[in-house]
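Newbie here. two chains, one complex. Structure please?
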Amino acid sequence: MEELDTEPPVTVVPGADPARTQLCFEWGPAEMLLCETLFGPRGGERPRGPSCVFVVRRDQDIYMETLRKLFNESHGIFVGLQRCEEERAVRARNAQLIQVSKNYRSVIRACMEDMHQAAISARDSALHSQYSIQVSILSAMELIWNLCEILFVEAAPAGPLLLRLLDWVQLHICDVDNMVREVLSSENPSKHKLFWNVVDIFVLQGRMDEARHLLSKEAIANPTSMNMYKILDDLMKKMPVPSVGNTQTLTEMELKWQHWHEECQRYLQDGTFASSSHMESICKILLGDENAILEKKELMTTWYHFLVTRLLYSHPTVKPMELRFYAQSSMDMFLGEESSPEPLDTILMAAFEFELHQVIKECSVALSNWWFVAHLTDLLDHCKLLQSHNLYFGSNMREFLLLEYASGLFSHHSLWQLGVDYFDHCPEYGRVYLELHIERIPLNTEQKALKVLRICEQRQMHEQVRSICKIMAMKALRNNRLGSALSWSIRAKDAAFATLISDRFLKDYCERGRFSDLDLIDNLGPSMLLSDRLTFLGKYREFHRLYGEKRFSEAARLLLMLMTAHIAPCSFWMTLLTDALPLLEQKEVRMLQSLSTLNVPRLGLFIAVQELHSTPSVLSRAGGIGMTSNLE
Amino acid sequence: MRAGTPDWPCLPARTAALAAAPSAVPRRSPSPRSQSGGAWQRREPCGAMEEVCARFVSQKISKARWRPLPVAALQPPDVFATGSWDNEDNRISIWSVGDVGSAGLNGEYQGEPQLLCDIRHNGDVMDMQFLDQERIVVASSTGSVTVFRHHQNSQTLSASHRWENAHCHADQYTACGGAACTGVICNNPEIVTVGEDGRINLFRADQKDAVRTIDNADSSTLHAVTFLRTTEVLTVNSIGQLKVWDFRQQRNEPAQIFSLTGERVPLHCVDRHPNQQHIVATGGQDGMLSIWDIRQGTMPVSLLNAHEAEMWEVHFHPSNPDHLFTCSEDGSLWHWDTSTDVSEKPSFLHQGGRSTAYFSHSTINQSVVSAWLSNDPTKDRMEITNLIPNQTLSVNTLDVLGPCLVYGTDAEAIYVNRQLFA
């Protein structure tokens, strides 16, 4: 077994006190049962008192009401991704995978917005903080997903890579947006005390046009230093940026950039901006001066912002594989000695290092749900990035994570339906998991049973189909709903159970002298052949009908057939023979001759019945009430 | 979405399929066009160009019903009710789609459905019908039937009356164990309910006890009920039978029994043609749509292979019965259109409201008879559209009124299409 490289986190179960009693546990499919034993902590007897059983859920996020739309909506995207054909051209397929990734992200965003709304409208402070925590978790998930999308799914090459990273920073560093809004909405932005901060933010995020727009306002207010502004504006305008299309080669871009860099250098050295510290620092930033950038630490708030700014102004054509060096040093420089990286930092760092498995592993540890890793891993697997990796248990990582996530869904009273499709797309163990889980779905209405049954039938899970039908048939039987019970056992093709129910029908007939549920028995059709007893029931009822319609000869022939076919239960022979008696007296029916073909013991019985005929009271107890009264 | 000339060809009779079917009814296997072009983009705000607005509601929807319009109303419906199932805490919710504040230029209302109010409901919501503008009758899996009142001034819901154990299993051990009430139909003030216990109840909205109860009306589960005439109801059951019950008769026996011969495929839903009461549509467990003429025979007039799994609901359009809508466990929702001749499309199409339907009553009569009851598949033309492009989980319910369609799914979403005939 692999060594654990981190200590597993301790889960405190509220209410369970290991100092008071020893605890024992039992694994469940997606949850764990924990209970207090009779033993105290040192093996002695525990103090008296009631003992408790605790249910420990592994995937607690499943139970968040607002997250349900995340699960439901992403389920649709997941199924769509599995369905899309493999044979598409590489380019088209790549574009499609990027679209799928964006769809996942937009679902996270939408959910985040809802959660944010919920947090605002929550009156309870505990609820408010719970929602706020979820908002920050969701936003971290989106941040990670977006980075993975740039680096792995899209696999942006040098040049466009930097543009994507800039977008990424602009999208997620939104703490400063309020400051920007405040300054821009003030009457005279250039006099606002945060004016230069906002300009710096724009420069740091590479939003040159916006920075220039603000600076032009300041320039108008300071006609004396107009020249200085003009030069800086010109530098910012001329800054070469990598193009998205193929209009220029990397070398071209690097040459241009080198040229521009030298120009900046010149202006800085000849002291053009010496009269304004603000503009001088901007010029230093443009030159990629790390210390100058680091001075704006609080405007960047995170080390990955610093990384992207640093790359923008010193290595705009950074190659994907070089990212790791810059990322590591940027983090070290930004965090300094005093603070250690948090889980989010480690995850992002692993992504910059292209350590895919490390990203997934760290996410699994840090996040409280399986949703994120399961869907991300599945997407990366569709990008063919995970194929070399096999686990020492189970099949592969994708399947392992999907199974965990789907098991969590199945432990939920309502989300279990979503889990089915996830199991379907786990080629190795999905079916076994589904078989084990689906049997544990409580069936409180027939409609729910039908839905579960449909899932099983579509997947040819005959064992489960039989078991569900049997459960429903038993329920119906217990409720005295013989008709329903028979329907269920016919659906399951359960001959033994059909026999049992047919016996109940016959017994009822013997007791009451009439059939219940005629609408069902008269309409058995081909399903009558399921069991001998059911066939007998159906045919015997047909005999009654023929008799009722006074088609005696047909009735007699059918009765004879029932006697000779050896399908009547022994206990019913008496009734059959009693039924035969009136027919014997019919002139047109030549029953006696036919009856003589029966073997001797049965004829003996027949004679016994004939004797009974003389005492009608016994006869009626034997069961032929309906018939005899009909005759007389 | 729909071109000037329908490119959907005449449906050929699949005579080969007849051999497999023991019944003498011609069986056709239409397959729908999937909706082209109009497929809506998710996460886009519902704009003027969008056909369908969706909302995820964090509960599986079992029923959705438009609130009926006042008799003289000309505007499209704007309020509907939903019920959930399989939740620990099931709810009845009232939604509004007509946000008056953001009415568009042409009076089109946009925006996703907004929750007006909701209330807890004990048990799964099995069926739900509006009794009138304010009252909703809800059938529960616990066997109770509840009348909820929607107070439109305060936007609140309250339970105004409940018949506990309207459906129950009376076995030898317990006095009465609840049996799911599977169907309810209203014809104010009368309410008829059916259940897993095979019982039929007739209630009056203002009376405490049932007016009439038929115990063991059916030996199998009754799945749905609808009014045939004022005193007669239709029920469908789990052994493929369609029964007519007449409350004027004192006998507890059905007046008529129709059945899918031989196969015993359970029927899950039933609806009656709004103008021609003898035409009845039912949907079965195998997704088959059956059309019956209850004036004659005991078998369906036509069988149409439709969905791949249980058909949960079937609805004739109330004012435009050339159109029929069905939804299914397989996640699809089909629009069946027999008014293929575009030039003859009656004008009332464009307006909602039942009152306008009378204008072209006579023309409907002729076209519809030939459409739904036609036994000659070469003669009739039927255009079928699947309204859901990327189907996944079951569409449990749908309702149509005027130009508006609402449907709810097991993927915990409700969808509203307000330009059904655009």
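Moderator note: Confidence is low (pLDDT under 50) at residues 1-26, 34-49, 100-109, 342-368 of chain B. The first helix of chain B runs from residue 15 to 18. Thread marked as resolved.
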